[in-house]
Amino acid sequence: MSQDNNKYVPPKIWKQDKESGGKFASINSPVAGARHNKELPVGAAPLQLYSLNTPNGVKVNILLEELAELGVKAAEYDAYKIDISQGDQFGSGFVAINPNSKIPALVDRSNSEPIALFESGAILMYLAEKFGRFIPLPLGKARADCLSWVMWQMGSAPFLGGGFGHFYAYAPEPLEYPINRYTMETKRQLDVLDTHLKDNKYMCGNDEADYNIADMLIWSWYGQLVLGKLYNAAEFLQVDSYIHVKRWANMVAERPAVKRAVDLSLKPIE
Q1: Alpha-carbon dihedral of residues 240, 232, 83, 30, nearest 10 degrees?
Q2: Does the pTM exceed 0.85?
Q3: With 267 labelled, which of 5, 13, 135, 177 sits at a CA distance of 20 to 30 A?
Q4: In angstroms, rounded to a whole number, what is the distance separating the alpha carbons of residues 164 and 183?
């Protein structure tokens, strides 16, 4: 790395020669894989969830609690806390079910051979299809709409969390260019949602039956954001101007399953 008048010039070859700084600097690394041996506990329920109540974790919590609200016994689960600030995600047991070392991860033990899943979108699609709830199953417009918004969220939220959230709330110092860049994109995404929700009660329609995993995935990030639950950034982003997103976010937040999901009790892995 060379410096000229304090201007950063990228080196020809990047090397990790110092901590990156910021809230998660102590656990950041360019190398994947387990860093210590730690087996995961396994409970008696058919589904075993290993997670944290972050936006990505809350997504799965909501679906599991919505299934519980419907009395789906086969969707009963044990939930364990993966404390990412302490490096639990790099334990050998967790890496075995999620080589990407990110929460959430889930193991379906209802079959003769356990099925491990990672990535929140994959987990929600798998569970919704397994139990035939909260996802349109027949091919057609309803399913296409649901999957389109699911993929929109999976592709868009990294700009909100890893982009805006990191530089606005977690970086070692505020930097104008990245904050402006990711604020612009976050507000554009909120405008996409606000325009869509102007004519839709839920993400995929106006009937109660249209509430599905697209709402759960998107609410966990953007719903919580406009309700002032993320990054202490509500005023900065002028979230009150997105009136249709706010209406939808408040409505979803009042669902009993969602209320339980945001503060889900997670057992320590010990």
Answers
A1: 100
A2: yes
A3: 135
A4: 6
